[in-house]
Amino acid sequence: NLGKQLRELVSHYQWLVSEKEIMLSYSIPDIEIYGDPYLLNNVWDNLLSNAIKYNKQNGSIDISVAERDGIVTVTFEDTGIGMKQSELKRIFDRFYRADMARTRTIEGAGLGLSIVDNIVKLHGGHVTVNSQESEGATFIVKIPVV
After folding, report:
1. Which of 33, 43, 51, 129 sees the fewest Cβ atoms within 10 Å?
2. Torsion over CA: 7, 114, 124, 144 (sign)
3. What is the DSSP letter of 136?
């Protein structure tokens, strides 16, 4: 149950969202999909923790889930620091971190999005990102229901 899994994750991060004074909204219906719950939880955990980590004080995060024609779309949209267009083509590469000058105070190894991409592909899906520097990022995961 993807909806239950995502709601539990949101609940787990609620303290950090409150601490950074981020407004978190979500529309997460109960949708059953076939997949490895542990691996998929890693996907959602990476995307939500990044949305929090790279967000601004008093920023926002919106998570939505929809199913259409056997494809589930999970969207994480934030108002964080965003990325330059030139960085987007490498964002899923292992050990790549976007613009180190802006993110040097934020810890990480540059593996999270590579892991996300690989797990989503293992489930027959794909992940894309839309972003503008200083305007946040939107990560869209599409996975077949079965």
Report:
1. 129
2. positive
3. -
Q: What is the pLDDT of residues 58-98, one digit of tens each?
A: 999 999 999 999 999 999 999 999 988 888 888 887 766 66
E strand or H helix at 129 = strand 126-131
Beta-bridge mates of residue 72: 67, 143
CA angle, 74 as apex, 68 and 80 as ends, to 5°?
145
User: Which structure tokens are listed for 78?
Assistant: 């934030």
Copy the structure tokens of residue 98: 């976007």
Q: Is 69 exposed, middle or buried (0-12, 13-18, 19+ CB in 10 A)?
A: exposed
